[in-house]
Amino acid sequence: MTYCVGLRLQEGLVLLSDTRTNAGVDNVSTFGKMHVVEKPGERVVCLMTAGNLSLSQIVVNMVQEGFESETLGGFFTLGSAPSMFGTAQLVGEAIRKAFAAHGEAMRAQSIGFDVSILLAGQIKDRRMRLFQIYSAGNFIEATEETPYLQIGEHKYGKPILDRAARWDTPLYDAIKLVLVSMDSTLRSNLTVGLPIDLLVYKRDTCRVDIRRRIHEDEPYFRQIREQWSSALRDAYRAIPRPDWAR
């Protein structure tokens, strides 16, 4: 399993993914799930993947190397699609092509066709956007009212985002939010694991602002984990008992 989260904010994007893959309790590996195409001054496009690892790699390779797109009407890659919406269409089409090529064989082996992708970025003179793309190739987009999207094992990290993530959240404050969201998931689900990959993008710059792999011994992440746990304990203790309890 995995956990990936993306925030599309007024100031930019904050994206975070774990690196664990799990095919059983004795088959745990580390694979990066964040894939970035950066052409400074022209575009930044990031994919984060969850689900079947082989399907994810097939789709990522297809859109990185490019193919003749019936939807877009020509040969396109992540680095050449004309807009972020067109990029989302390209990724969705790649998923459908992967299903056409491998879906029947997977069904014969009783393997589900499971892949989901977060796509985020900006192309020069276009809008900055964040999409969630499903196994059928269809997709939804983050909005000002719902500025974040998640894939994978998302339920443990969702409450902090529901309470605190807002369209006008300052960009670097949002780093804290996604790290707390990830820490909550790491504590509750062993199929999500360190290290984790972070990307921060400032709106309209068309270049990556921060890209960092965070390991267990990262001082700031350790501080986040300790302070958040302490703050939760203090908040719990500060809440009065119900007046009907003895």
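The record above closes out task 2.4. Task 2.5 opens with a second protein, given below.
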Amino acid sequence: MTETNLVGSAHPLPAPGLDSQAGKTIPRSHIAAWAFWDWGGAAFNAVIVTFVFSVYLTDTPAFGGTTYVTAMLGWATAGAGLIIAVLAPVTGQRSDGSGRRKLWLAVNTAAVIVTSALLFFVEPRAELLVLGLFLIAAGTIFFELASVNYNAMLAQVSTPSTIGKISGFGWSMGYFGGIVLLLILYFGFIHPDVGLFGVTDANGLSVRVSMLLAALWFTIFSLPIFFTVPEFPKSAATLPRVGFFRSYGVLFRDIAALWRTNRQTVIFLISSAIFRDGLTGVFTFGGVLAAGSFGFSSGDVIVFAIVANLIAGVSTLLIGRLDDRLGAKFVMVFSISGAIVAGLALLIFSGGGTGVFWIFGLLMCIFVGPAQSASRTFLARVIPAGREGEVFGLYATTGKAATFLAPSLFALAVTLFNGQIWGILGIVLVLAVGLVLLIPVKAQGRNAA
């Protein structure tokens, strides 16, 4: 990557991977098919990681105490992050060089679906906690590796003037997909004493059957992208095809060159890794906090999740449009600051009960999607054509290298202050550090605030 392609360049900032798209009319079917993958991915993010299965683990006495299981969940997520940090950049780099983005997206998507379905076998028994944590960790690894190629395809379904809007549309589809699926699960299996097909909550069956439906949901809605969006042409690749282990040599040389030529980009990758982990922590531990610290029942958590996803989806759509007008950095700084203020208010007024969580928990959700979407578009605008997978792999690597921060600080705060509610302080601290590192990053051209 040359200096003219990077954040803070002394020259006008182009959008190398997107400039070839300038003036093109992207078929709406391509955009919709791409976004439907996010819609389907809500089955893993919203249902498994955040609001249903994770709450099932932490709120079921048979698995162990709430604090203990919460800490174990954090360590499992951190372990998955380390594996992703090792694999993501070279897998993305190799998919760029081979012209097989869709192939690897399909392979990793299928792996997520399989691990999701296997969660059905996690009955509420202490000895099965490890299986549940292992499947969540494995699903997280495969989902993040799939996301490397999915994010790289953003440049194939957008133009320099529409990337912010389309990225925001994709994020919002994930939230809206989560709403629809959570409604189906709530009214079909979890809320009624006897749900569809005679399913009850005995032996955790209502949650376990929900995992099968989540796997089916992702299967159905992941298909359009494979049949509609064209494969990235091998002829457009700018990277030489090398062996797997030599790929790491290429990666380290690229990172060293990036550090020498433009440290602004490196600082952005570090800052975004930190604040994205904090934003992920908002949803990862949101359901756990609602149930453990604010007295929400499992059904209440899902109702909150539905409203939270609706608000997050709408805010991502609306604020995403500001990305193209005011710049990605403006959106990120504004959103992260808002999330920090809402998080501190949630902690300070936590004695107010469920009403406080509804107000300030939802307020935090307003800012999560816009900041994540803007982070993705900020980077997409500066990637040289043909290297999207590699750079988004590095994006995933830096992000997952910091994955331990929010879970670890959450668990540390809970342990030090002997109360789950204090975990919020750990999340807020991660967001604050990311914001401090982001503020001095220089943004020009289409990224400028």
